[in-house]
Design goal:
This protein is of the alpha+beta class. 39% of the residues lie in helices and 17% in strands. It folds into two domains: 127 residues, NADH:ubiquinone oxidoreductase Nqo5 subunit (Beta Polymerase, domain 2, 2-Layer Sandwich); 315 residues, Cytochrome-c3 Hydrogenase, chain B (Orthogonal Bundle). The chain has 16 helices and 15 strands.
Length: 518
């Protein structure tokens, strides 16, 4: 079924990815979501906006086979409500709760518990409303008195049931998140997550930036995905401006994105080996990752490639000497990763910890909307680089790794396969890199122009929706991490496992706290 068959008034937006946009009423809002789900589609993102004198709006990006449907439902009234989508698309639940905390727009009949707010601002204040005074009466950032949080966790009762609270502050340097386990002995009956502890006001901050500068903030939504976010932002800004970057810039963006993917997978494989008792794995993969990051710093000016992707192109280039160095590095790393994969696959103690642990069956993954790396490990065969390839992926041979076991072992194996596939992609890009400029002048879009960016980051799809204001300002930017979809699935993955396996299961997903704490 074509997008126009679902919503007759859809209008295509310019840009590198196929995106259609339409305003809908309440009936079409839910009916379209239902039809998309029945056709095998899913929710990409849900967010709200303050339309000033016109009231508010709630937006949904829905993935269909041919691209993205961007639906906008205008809302009126002092306490605006809209139809709940969580019964059709379960991933919508936390997004809807966040939209209420930030804007005061509520999904009728849905879970009304707060999500991002904690005790940082009062219940009657909504930071993303245009009327919200972020500065107060002075030039300092506005602050509110701290109030008790009193979050209503769901209690599990029964003989022998105990609660184990973990976090939000953890040993080590990981970000804060609260995990409340209900257990009998060591067996997990239920897990309830509470995130939002590092809410940073990113979406509010976008409103104070110009469209030329927003890429820097986008690249800091989740630092381990800086290339994916910056590219998605640039893609959205370029769509709004009607601009296509030079071919060399697009090929270099893909090279940077694959380097980001490899760096994160190398780090994860080391930590997964360590969490399962194979300390040698952490030592070896840490060494390989560090060498990889040093090459990125030497050739592109930043270990994690931050601020390399800009609207209109990239802020770096690759010399002939640098290309030769990358090709040598790829050859070395390919051999070492293959050797380490053999060690992981043939280590009986390691495989005993990985196989069958934290399983998410394909049927559950499909129902809950599991996406990205974790989704592909549970049979969800979807990768934007293959299904909806933009330049240069439409000219490259991209091998999509998928598995159906959905356990920690599958997620580990998939990482190995994606590393080797990304090394092949890097080689293709370097050998076929076109000549030409790496950037072009980026013009300010017209007031009211909109655009969307959709990029397959290492964790999954990163989506950015952008609406331009007057004189190069940003009216609204929503940056969406795939962790929104995947955090709730982790609660299911841990059920029936023992408490000591949770760190291993959690690391096998490796979801972003920062990416959902905007």
């Amino acid at each position: 079924m074509k997008p126009e068959d679902l919503v007759p008034d859809l209008q295509p937006l310019p840009g590198a990815m196929p995106v259609w946009r339409a305003d809908v009423d309440s009936a079409a809002w839910r009916a379209t979501a239902q039809m998309v789900r029945e056709q095998g589609g899913r929710l990409v993102a849900l967010w709200g906006s303050d339309e000033a004198a016109e009231g508010f709006a709630v937006h949904a990006a829905l993935a269909v086979r041919d691209g993205v449907l961007w639906l906008t439902l205008p809302l009126r009234g002092r306490q605006p409500e809209y139809p709940d989508l969580s019964a059709v698309l379960p991933a919508a639940q936390r997004m809807q709760r966040a939209a209420y905390d930030l804007l005061g727009i509520r999904a009728a009949g849905a879970d009304a518990r707060k999500w991002l707010r904690h005790g940082a601002w009062p219940a009657g204040e909504f930071p993303l409303r245009k009327s919200f005074d972020a500065q107060g009466s002075t030039d300092a950032t506005r602050r509110f008195d701290t109030v008790a949080d009193d979050y209503p966790f769901v209690a599990v009762q029964g003989e022998g049931v105990h609660e184990i609270p973990v976090g939000p502050v953890h040993a080590g340097i990981i970000e804060p998140g609260h995990f409340r386990f209900s257990v009998v002995g060591e067996r997990v009956l239920r897990l309830e997550e509470r995130l939002g502890y590092v809410h940073k006001g990113i979406e509010k901050r976008f409103e104070a930036l110009g469209i030329h500068d927003g890429f820097r903030l986008a690249g800091r939504v989740s630092g381990d995905s800086t290339v994916a976010y910056a590219w998605a932002y640039a893609m959205a800004a370029e769509a709004a401006a009607g601009l296509t970057p030079p071919p060399r810039a697009l090929w270099l963006r893909a090279l940077l994105l694959e380097r980001e993917r490899v760096a994160n997978h190398l780090g994860d494989l080391g930590y997964l080996g360590n969490d399962a008792g194979l300390a040698m794995g952490l030592a070896q993969f840490s060494r390989l990752k560090e060498d990889w990051l040093r090459t990125s710093a030497a050739l592109f000016g930043h270990r994690y490639l931050m601020d390399r992707v800009i609207p209109g192109g990239v802020a770096c280039d690759l010399s002939a000497e640098g290309a030769h160095e990358i090709l040598q590095e790829l050859e070395r790393l390919r051999a070492e990763v293959a050797r380490l994969k053999t060690i992981f696959d043939e280590h009986p103690g390691l495989q005993d910890r990985l196989i069958g642990t934290g399983r998410v069956a394909p049927e559950l993954a499909d129902r809950l909307g599991l996406t990205g790396l974790a989704g592909r490990a549970s049979g969800m065969a979807w990768d934007l680089r293959v299904e909806l390839p933009c330049v240069p992926y439409d000219a490259l041979e991209v091998a999509m790794a998928t598995h159906r076991n959905g356990d920690v072992a599958a997620r580990v194996t998939l990482r190995f396969e994606e590393v080797l596939a990304s090394l092949d992609l890097c080689e293709q890009i370097v050998e076929r890199l076109p000549e030409g400029n790496v950037a072009t002048l980026f013009p300010s879009p017209r007031d009211g122009a909109s655009g969307a960016g959709w990029v397959e980051g290492w964790r999954g799809e990163v989506f950015v929706a952008l609406e331009a204001g007057a004189n190069g300002a940003l009216r609204r930017v929503h940056a969406h991490d795939p962790s929104w979809q995947n955090w709730p699935v982790l609660e299911h993955a841990v059920m029936g496992n023992i408490v000591p396996d949770f760190p291993l299961i959690n690391k096998s997903f490796n979801l972003s706290y920062s990416g959902v704490d905007l």
